[in-house]
Amino acid sequence: MSGSQCARLGGPLVRQLLDSVDSVLFDCDGVIWRGDQAIPGAARVISLLKQRGKKVFFVTNNSTKTRKMYADKLSSLGFDAAEDEVFGTAFCCAAYLRSECGLRGKVYLVGSDAMRQELEAVGIQAVGVGPDPVSGKQLDWASVPLDPEVQAVVVGFDEHFSYMKLNRAMQYLTQKDCLFVGTNRDTRLPLEGGKAVPGTGCLLQAVETAAQRQAQTVGKPSRFMFECVAQRFGLRPERCLMVGDRLDTDILLGSACGLKTLLTLTGVSTAAEAAAHRDSSSAERRAMVPDYYVESIADLLPALQGEDDPSL
């Protein structure tokens, strides 16, 4: 169905696409909600997909909430969602360290309390959460006390990010056996009214620059994000649809994992940007081209409600 890339999805094509998949993975911010307000029609789309027997998952790069916190937010906005359907980078990072790395020691965490909770849920103790003010002089900073049980540095979104945290992360990472993991590389967090704030990617790049090392990231577009869902629910990539608002994370993840992809225009990326990628000679850019796009996921409602086919 992806022979015509970047096609506007509508009419009978919507039903054909939905009939070709068993599972739908949704990004959250910019797709089913913006800030603390649900996208109109989004909750109804989720409900109808489930009524039609589709598995639905919520896959987000945001590391500031636990699965339960996300399930609670979904519920408060009127979505039919269970905790085990939510896959945020806080949860997936903990899963990566435990299952892929076999980590048994502590981590130095540049991140949120939600990340600490998810790490501790799999038996990994985190140190470093909260403010870390500068004290002493430069020579003291270079000899800052380090926990000998720390085996990894993990970087997520941290509202308390500081020079001392950057320094402490760098000192740990001078140890060659210390693992280095980041949640995601999103550099900007879009807000209402066209505003934005720096994202986790800015913090991660600062640590990478100081440590002169590159982190392994687990969030979109890393394949691990999809594998984290697929391994738990036995998903077949060719029977999955990835719905997102960002070409460089959501759509790129879908392309990398062999999923069908749908871009919504209620968030970050635009149809013009997708078309420019499609017309590029760069393979890297073409990997960010969605199979289809819609103005909003509410555009799926007519097909789900049978309004596109009078015989239903």
Automatic annotation (TrEMBL):
Pfam families from the UniProt entry: Hydrolase_6 (PF13344), Hydrolase_like (PF13242)
Binding site for substrate: K220
EC number, as in UniProt: 3.1.3.21, 3.1.3.48
InterPro entries per the UniProt record, alphabetical: HAD-like_sf, HAD-SF_hydro_IIA, HAD_sf, PGP_euk
Domain of life: Eukaryota
GO biological processes: glycerol biosynthetic process; glycerophospholipid metabolic process
Active-site residues, as the UniProt record annotates them: D27, D29
Cofactor(s) listed: Mg(2+)
Residues annotated for Mg(2+) binding in this entry: D27, D29, D245
Catalysed reactions listed for this entry: O-phospho-L-tyrosyl-[protein] + H2O = L-tyrosyl-[protein] + phosphate; sn-glycerol 1-phosphate + H2O = glycerol + phosphate; sn-glycerol 3-phosphate + H2O = glycerol + phosphate
GO molecular function: metal ion binding; protein tyrosine phosphatase activity; sn-glycerol 3-phosphatase activity
GO CC, any one term: cytoplasm
Cofactor remark: Divalent metal ions. Mg(2+) is the most effective.
Family per record: Belongs to the HAD-like hydrolase superfamily. CbbY/CbbZ/Gph/YieH family.
Subunit structure as annotated in this protein's UniProt entry: Homodimer.
Name under which the protein is recorded: Glycerol-3-phosphate phosphatase
Upper classification of the organism: Eukaryota, Metazoa, Chordata, Craniata, Vertebrata
